[in-house]
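In the lab's daily routine, each protein ends up as an entry in a very long ledger. A line of letters takes care of the sequence, but it says nothing directly about the fold. The three-dimensional part falls to structure tokens, numbers that each stand for a local backbone shape. The outcome of that step, for a single protein, is printed below.
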Amino acid sequence: SEIAAEHADLVLAIDGDELSVEHLYRRLNDRGESRILPLVIDLRQATPGLGWRGKERAALEDRGRPDLVLCLALIHHLSITASIPMAEVLDWLHGLGGELVIEFPHRDDPMVERLLRPKVEPHAEYRRQVFEELLEQRFELRSRQTLPSGTRTLYHAAPRA
């Protein structure tokens, strides 16, 4: 978020981990940084519109359109931990309307192996080839780069009309 803020007017730093968000908030507050808004949001259960007829406080995706959505260490948690199909996650990201930078941890990534270990279902769809097919159905792939670990790939894509 701090690196992104060097190139943006406003960054929403969203994470479900309260301690991480609190740590970021304190660091930003100490520096007087106001271009980053740290928010604790569990994307598996993001707050819907609230208030009278759901219109007093809009749902997250109804509050504005981002230019860029940066998803690091996210897809495997939503897909494996929360059992949300990758197609659904990518549909949601596409609906946000911005360009996308997304990290895909491969099945042999240590965190993915850890998340899969207790699962009864094998999450057969959680494969790089399936992810890329789903991504390219919704987005125009601009670039891809395998990270030095060899177990994660970073993608830059623009939404298809």
